[in-house]
Amino acid sequence: MNSPRLIAVWAALTALLVPVFGQPAAPATKNYKAAVFVANRAGADYNAKISSLEDYVTARVTDLGVGVISRETVAGATAKLDNAANSNALDAALAQDSSALRLAQNLGADYLLQVTLSGYDTQVRAVDAYGVKAVNEDRTVRVTYKLLDGQTGVSLAADTVTVSKLVQQSPHAIEGRSDYLDGLLDQAAVKIAASLKSRIDAGRVAAPSAAAALVTVTLQTEAADLTIPDIRIGLENTVAISESKLKVSALSATVEVDGIAVGTAPGTLSVRPGLSKLRITRAGFKPYERTVNFTAGQSLTVALELNKEGFDRWRDSTAFLNSLKNGAKLTDAEVKFLEGKAKALEQSGFKVDTKDAPAITIVNESADRTRDSRRDAQGRSLFTF
Q1: pLDDT beyond 60 at 339
Q2: Is 154 helix (H, G, I), strand (E, B) or coil?
Q3: Which residues pair with 33 in a beta bridge?
Q4: Which CATH superfamily groups domain 9-201?
């Protein structure tokens, strides 16, 4: 079975009819949205035809009153998963109904329409009639679709359509099996639209379920196993290195929920409640992936681990601390240099947490160094900005 290729479109279903005593009622006034995914399970030889099947289905379903937004709109929403919307990683993720359903929910879809190229077969029969030899080929395409409720995942309608074509050729001029495939796929799309319309007209497509209210969660990101000594600079530019260690946080990490980039951490996010796949990435760190049950008011702290490249950058960024000695007296220029290095560390995406530093006393400094920072009798923390 081949990994399905994502072909997703954003649609507004405007022609849903509700039967009344066997007669269709007036069209519903509400605009419904559907996300459509097209997959290939007929063999790798037909991967290139999936884009065509998308176009045919889009065109035929549009005749039912479906307004379609370009696939690039949806591709942009999924690009953060692996830097390419059509990547193998994304295809593999969407092979699972639950992943495709959650993506549809994140896109705000009321329905999920899954279309699958299930098979393309050819039966060959040799014909010898009245001295004329020929080869008859029966070429058959099977395409399956199912319509799911975008919120609950309940199947509302499903069908398999079959389209065949008889091709007669001379024994020495057999055409390739894909020569007629586009025409067969277009005919299959016509049948899909007709099948879907018949189920809509029969009232088998329920009105959209109410979308679950979003919940607010808070994400904090720590750098696993990273600490830094609490270094103070006194009034006389004297270095004081405390035995206490300060935690380090990773800033501006990308947060993805079920393959959709939803924000950055640390921060507060609005997500759908329930089980979701949480993925947090940041340059220099290993990707963090967990299945999380989101609830209202939830607070999560994620420990990100440095990869080799990130550890090398961290080591280089903190090398300036190795030369500091407890009790050493610095010049003003040396203090400025250290302050610049400490600030550069934060600007590179690391935040040194000084909130748990020992109790402090405010001391006065010259006007050119006045700042809102925490200070104690030993001096101000080098990492407080």
Answers
A1: yes
A2: coil
A3: 12
A4: ABC-type transport auxiliary lipoprotein component (3.40.50.10610)
